[in-house]
Automatic annotation (TrEMBL):
Name the UniProt record assigns to this protein: Nitroreductase
Classification via SUPFAM superfamilies: FMN-dependent nitroreductase-like
């Protein structure tokens, strides 16, 4: 959800490191051995697999802010790791909570895939709460089969968009039954406004040093840094390959992000990106409550796991929502009354790359807890029934 475009120039070639940091968080394809966990965690095999799949959710700068406390077998408290918040671009933790919603959606999809039903209980009433949800998983016969193919292959694509607008039939198929979606063609007044103001908001954020310094702390240019942290933005997740990728991995450092040449190269690439798309998908929410944001993150994840099957790519570009005065202007410009939570550049692509982003092993974000009250009590409703 949080932005990041940065494109280093190597040997006169502009590298697309691309896109929103939120979008650089695709499922991992790594064979590197994980670093040792902080401590032993007791998990049953199905628990470990469900949490591994849940952690393929996207997050700003690929910070992976989820934290899980195991209260007992298949009884977990889902929380947020405050050390992974992005204070410069997400000071109210709005985007963090949206990312946590995507994590919850993946968790439920993975649980259903393995034959478990989820019972949820909301714990948080603010975006800053350390604990968000309690969940109990129960093995349940007769659950509808959950296909996780789209979850495993979800990928943010930044380049190669064709310019024809999305077909109305595809928009209807992808958003059927999901409230709050609005599609704007690039040649519409709203689409033209989004193109122009995305460029302006990117320029403002790129030259806001606090935002750029925050980004630099999550860049993993070298293979060694990527293996050590298993999070953040890597050359592969930013679509820097070949000789250019080798150069970046060996000679670039986080300090490179602060250079003016680096910032200008990134802005030039933003201009190229917004110049090619099939339009914008905009997602609104009923209000700004924490539960509503969690549900909105679930909704966008349900969309994201479907688009590859239609040959459609998504590239969230949300700088407009992170910078003033653009954030205050977006509803009026688009003619929408409800709060806007996602701005998704979308388009047909001829080639869909495989996922490459890093993921932390399950043991790195799960901790053992004490005995917790059973959340499958009266009043603990499925999350889908607790929408604001």
């Amino acid at each position: 959800m949080t932005r990041r475009h940065f494109w280093p120039a190597v040997g006169g070639v502009l590298l697309t490191t691309g896109g929103l940091a939120y979008l650089a968080t695709d499922p991992p394809q790594t064979t590197r051995p994980p670093a040792p966990p902080a401590g032993p965690v007791t998990l049953l095999p199905d628990e470990r697999e469900i949490l591994r799949l849940a952690a393929l959710a996207p997050s700003g700068h690929n910070t992976q802010p989820w934290r899980v406390t195991r209260q007992g077998p298949f009884r977990w408290t889902i929380g947020c790791d405050r050390t992974r918040w992005l204070a410069a671009v997400d000071p109210t933790q709005r985007e963090t909570i949206l990312s946590m919603g995507a994590f919850l959606q993946n968790l439920e999809s993975a649980a259903n895939h393995l034959g478990y039903a989820c019972r949820w209980q909301l714990l948080a009433n603010t975006n800053q709460a350390a604990d968000l949800m309690d969940v109990t998983l129960t093995k349940t016969a007769g659950l509808p089969a959950a296909d996780i193919t789209g979850l495993l292959r979800r990928r943010t694509v930044r380049t190669g968009f064709r310019s024809e607008p999305l077909a109305p039939a595809d928009v209807r198929a992808l958003t059927a039954g999901e409230p709050g979606y609005h599609f704007f063609r690039r040649d519409s007044p709203q689409g033209q406004w989004l193109d122009a103001q995305t460029l302006a908001a990117n320029r403002q954020q790129t030259y806001r040093d606090a935002a750029e310094q925050e980004l630099s702390r999550w860049v993993r240019f070298s293979d060694q840094e990527a293996a050590r942290h298993r999070d953040g933005l890597t050359p592969a997740s930013m679509e820097i390959g070949g000789v250019a990728g080798w150069w970046v991995r060996h000679f670039y450092t986080p300090a490179t992000v602060m250079k003016a040449s680096f910032r200008e190269a990134g802005l030039a690439n933003v201009a190229e990106q917004v110049g090619q798309s099939g339009g914008w998908l905009v997602l609104t929410s009923a209000d700004r409550a924490t539960l509503t944001l969690l549900d909105t993150g679930r909704r966008v994840q349900r969309l994201w796991v479907q688009v590859r099957g239609h040959g459609i790519a998504l590239h969230p570009m949300t700088q407009i929502l992170e910078e003033a005065p653009f954030a205050q202007q977006v509803n009026g410009a688009l003619g929408l009354a409800a709060p806007v939570q996602f701005l998704l550049r979308c388009g047909y692509v001829d080639a869909y790359p495989e996922p490459v982003a890093e993921r932390r092993p399950v043991d790195w974000f799960v901790q053992n807890g004490g005995v917790a009250e059973d959340v499958a009590q009266a009043g603990a409703l499925p999350l889908e029934n607790r929408r604001a």
